[in-house]
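Q: How would the structure tokens look for this protein?
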Amino acid sequence: MLDNPRHVASIDESSLRYEGWRIVAVCFLLATFGWGLGFYGQSVYVAELQRQHGWPASLISGGTTFFYLFGALIVVFVGEAVRMFGPRICLIAGTLAMAAAAVAIGAVREPWQLYLADAVLAFGWAGTSLAMITNTLSLWFDHKRGMAISLALNGASFGGIVGVPLLITAIGQIGFSNAMYLTSAAMLVLMVPVILIFVGRPPESHGWNAAAKPQSSAQIRKDAMRDVGFLTVTIAFALVLFAQVGFIVHLISFLDPVIGRERAAVAVAVLTAMAVVGRVLFSMVIDRLNQRLAAALSFLSQAVALSVIINLHNDYVLIAACALFGFSVGNLITMPSLIVQQEFDPRSFGVLISLNVAINQVTYAFGPGVVGLLRDLSGGYALPFYVCIALEVIAAAMIMVRGRPATTA
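A: Here is the predicted structure in token form.
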């Protein structure tokens, strides 16, 4: 699995006329719905279902944890699904599953129905989020893969910045159930024709076809779990995403008593906006950087930002620290795929990045809960945030350990 044969692409990926950029646009739209309904939408579901039914917050949020953990089991096999059925069928399947999940969530009347809806949502999330988008774009891009993935994943931020407010507005106008049904219909009407029209057969010259694959998927995963380079990438990003998700979920709760709810909301908005800015700026140079070093510096910048947030309570300083933290948020879901691309056999890329995403998802699913538990035990956010800083620093050191250099076939 360590063999990394590099091929010379006969395609000009930098040309605006290259068909791959249409696939980037499709993946941008997919990410908008995927993150809007699957990731950011969770906070909306918790609030609305608790308001409608009066269920305990722990019961509803338990559904969210189940969604992430069950989704991680499915994500492992995304690379194989894309290789077996092709990107068009997989993208349509993900769209249909996400639309069905939106309908199911809108129709929830009993707690068991919520968990069933979250199971369907897990399939939709696997088919519309990072693993699917990365695997799809890898079929069209090699040298410009970092830029392609970064631009497509701006749809994730768009789903949070625009999609969720639109969903909340629709809920206020026509009710929760009708808003979910309308969102589902909008996704089907927009995404299915776009996928059918623009997603065709990927170019053969990129060499990610199934026939060239040297090992079984099970053997690739087994070898990866014994490879130092893969483990350092996966564990480092798992630690950072654990800290990142845990911090972001609790950010308003921390800032509210310090600078007030209005400015806390501004800080979160700045963090989200800077994630977009950072992703766009990095997309221009990310394919030319030392990916491990860039990741380590990103981890350390978040650690510095957290240190400032804990110790300095000036309004503007806190907002600036949130901006610094947010600058690297978007890139941390892009970098693992680029490191895997550089260091491992490209024919194993789909399986490896799906495994990486699944492990990360299992890990960060517990981030908010652990941060909340440490906050309750210590009586404040200093301890959990210092734990997050420690994880960021450990990850920065770990990511620089590459293991044995890959051999060239």
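The longest helix spans residues 228-259.

The radius of gyration is 21 Å.

Upvote if useful.
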